[in-house]
Specification:
single chain; alpha/beta; TIM Barrel; eleven-stranded mixed beta sheet; disordered N terminus
């Protein structure tokens, strides 16, 4: 055994897939790993990732985007395989610029200088080593805006615990309640088993969402849920779980923006109908939730998906 960086991650157990991949020689189930030696150029592969876009992003919830945008860092790779993924161009492969922890630190500071309200890590879980190191370095270098962890919620609690004290705002997308839907649409039958525990851990760390005088999130959790066509029962199940485990004041973003990317099978081959979203919203209101972010059906437009074309556009 030598000190080569190609031998430092012998078995990956970051996420619930628990694939055990040696990401120094092969990609994990998330599609991340196996960097070319010429790309690494002496950098430690534990602290490297492909970033497809880093720029101010204006299409998150109002407490996240505000009027100056969220400093979104879109990572390549994903530990889920949603048949309708709107970011499929980067979730299924490594695309973008390979950066290390120093470059990610510089990127975070540059986004702050541009006026971003926060640093928003999108699909971050495969890159936990890099993120932990870069956040620590960035805060030591003067980063003073909130860190947002924007995740599909398919997370391990022990991984999330590594982020305690580093992440300010958790933004989980709680997708499904049933294993049938999770398996059919995202090939993750055990999704809710892990996602439910992950959401509770996020709440334990950061609590309810708090905002500043301008309405910008400073700390806490905002749960997203995308209402899918012909799947209002899934929405009810997710909302029932939130009510049973968390305060009715929990901030929930009930999204109507479903757009059929990737030619998904029926019934996901169409947009959401107004009556479906209305039924989902009515149920949320009937349960007594007091902080619900709503969307109009005009949000179901591919123009809201950013171009994954680089840094600081």
């Amino acid at each position: 055994m030598t000190d080569s960086p190609y031998q430092i991650r012998s078995s990956c157990h970051i996420c619930p897939i628990d694939c055990g991949a040696d990401r120094s020689i092969t990609c994990g189930a998330c599609g991340v790993g196996k960097f070319e030696p010429t790309e690494l150029s002496g950098r430690d592969l534990r602290f490297c990732a492909y970033v497809a876009r880093a720029a101010r992003h204006y299409y998150e919830e109002p407490p996240i985007s505000g009027d100056r945008g969220s400093g979104a860092v879109f990572f390549s790779g994903c530990n889920m395989r949603c048949v309708f993924c709107q970011n499929f161009d980067i979730s299924r492969k490594q695309k973008g610029r390979l950066i290390d922890d120093s470059e990610l630190t510089d990127t975070m500071l540059a986004l702050m200088e541009l006026g971003a309200h926060n640093i928003n890590f999108v699909t971050p879980s495969p890159h936990i080593e890099l993120i932990v190191k870069a956040i620590t370095k960035a805060k030591n270098c003067g980063l003073n805006i909130p860190i947002v962890y924007n995740t599909n919620a398919y997370e391990r609690v022990d991984t999330l615990k590594r982020l305690e004290g580093l992440v300010d705002v958790y933004l989980p997308d709680l997708k499904y309640r049933s294993s049938i839907a999770a398996d059919r649409y995202s090939h993750t039958k055990n999704y809710f088993e892990f996602a439910s525990k992950a959401v509770l851990e996020m709440y334990r760390q950061c609590g309810e969402l708090t905002v500043d005088d301008c309405g910008i999130a400073q700390r806490g959790m905002l749960i997203r849920h995308l209402v899918l066509p012909a799947s209002v029962d899934e929405t009810r199940g997710v909302l029932d779980f939130i009510k049973s485990e968390l305060p009715l004041s929990t901030h929930i973003s009930l999204m109507s923006q479903y757009t059929p990317f990737c030619a998904p099978p029926p019934p996901l081959d169409r947009k959401l109908k107004k009556r479906e979203y209305d039924r989902a919203l009515d149920y949320a209101l009937s349960l007594g939730f007091t902080n619900i972010y709503m969307q109009g059906l005009n949000s179901a437009d591919s123009s809201f998906t950013p171009a994954f074309n680089g840094f600081f556009e």
